[in-house]
Specification:
8 helices, 2 domains, mainly alpha, about 150 residues
Length: about 150
Amino acid sequence: MANALGIAGCFNLEPGILFTPRMTKNLRTPYGAYGGILAAFLAQKGFTGPLDVFEGPRGIAQVVAGGEMDLEKLRQPRKDWTILYTWIKNFAADGNMQGLLEATVNLVKEHDIKADDVAEIRVKTLSHIYRREANSPERQVPNNKYTADHSCVM
């Protein structure tokens, strides 16, 4: 396991810049999973990785977190597994929009709202989501398939 983490830690970092509309955004999750699986198979066959990938000199804690990474949290046993909280999008829209869309659909169904009955819709959300999602020019006026797939235009 330590070797698998060392191998994966060397080539599976995900920069936060990938949260903005770029074609590479869609590759980050599957490529990370691929890298983790590959690292596990390599370690199983005896391939070794740097066991100090997190705390070693020029390791993740130093290079990525400027030495400010709480490595003790990595040593604590897990009480649950993140995979248990995986979900599938119900709507063909960005993940952050799923709750807003579901709430809207539920309100329309519960109150039998017709389009002609609606004069205005106001949506409240977190400011960082608004800045990233709705207020982004490339999400308002998509200019290629990728930006259209991640746009806020309905």
